[in-house]
Amino acid sequence: MATKTVLEEDGTIKGFFDWVKQDGSTPFQPEAGRYHLYGQHLCPFSNRATIGRVIKGLESAISYDNLDYVLPEGPGWKFSPEKPGCDADSINGCSILREVYDASAKKLGAKGFCYHSVGFSGGVTVPVLYDRKLGRIVSNDSASILRMLNSEFNEFCATPAQAKLDLFPPALQSEIEEAEAWQTKSIIFAVYGPAYAKTQEDFDAAIVKLFDGLDKAEELLSKQRYVVGKQMTEADIRLFVTLVRFDAVYVHMKCYLKRVNRDYPALWGFVRDIYQTGNIKDVVVFDEILKGYFLSKYMKPVNPYGIVPKLPPLDFHAPHGRELMV
Ligand SMILES: N[C@@H](CCC(=O)N[C@@H](CS)C(=O)NCC(=O)O)C(=O)O
Which residues does the UniProt record annotate as the domain GST C-terminal (predicted)? Predict the structure, then answer.
């Protein structure tokens, strides 16, 4: 994970990688009411941050604006306060997120913000952690934002139990990072492989890679409640945000060999377990997830007519019994 935002030789900034730190090692001190999260419910990466905020009880300390869940052609994420569930930009009054990125880059002496790549992860992405005091983005990296929310705002958590909750405990960090490395390659990014394959060979390979990854996760989670150790960690959240979308979204993106709720009993129990933890369910919003995926620009090649499928009957509230595993 990068540790600092850098000004490129071409005078632009290609990503924000700063850190809120309690120890005073960065200009970003934790304070209640100082930081703001921009996100939306469609995106699994954004969901890492929205889960971090609610599971740590930081709703009062860190404000939140929910962007329009549909990613349109053109300049990207926009604010659509006229749509139910979507907010205006309550901090900067912008109409598109790109303006927040550009203004932040300019604050740092840059010409502006520049796309660092094309494709799913390129450019003006969510989530974004924004600092009102310095008037700029701190980070647009979901993995770093989740870690900051986990450890740097503990004095502002709603309850002592939320302050104590540690999703990245020092003793488990290397194991967590190892688990995340394979999950990212074999599941989190692999769910996009089948839909975007341009040859039969690529498709065949993408399907094998994804379902091998899911088989491995199933085996692991049939023996233990959580991905690492006996407690919930960030590795569970990162796996959960993909798995909870699987039967609703990715099956329609040619990941149809198996379903989580039908073919993977341990993964399905795991999804319900995490979904039912704290108030995580409040930030898993299927209406926005479905419309967001199926109406956004990246789905055009897969879903040219913009048809939004119905949510299958999945009972996320059903008992999972996994508390007996620890
Ligand atoms: N750097 C990002 C990547 C997040 C990401 O890929 N977000 C996607 C939505 S799922 C996005 O905002 N895409 C906008 C675009 O590609 O224009 C992270 O926080 O992990």
Answer: 169-305
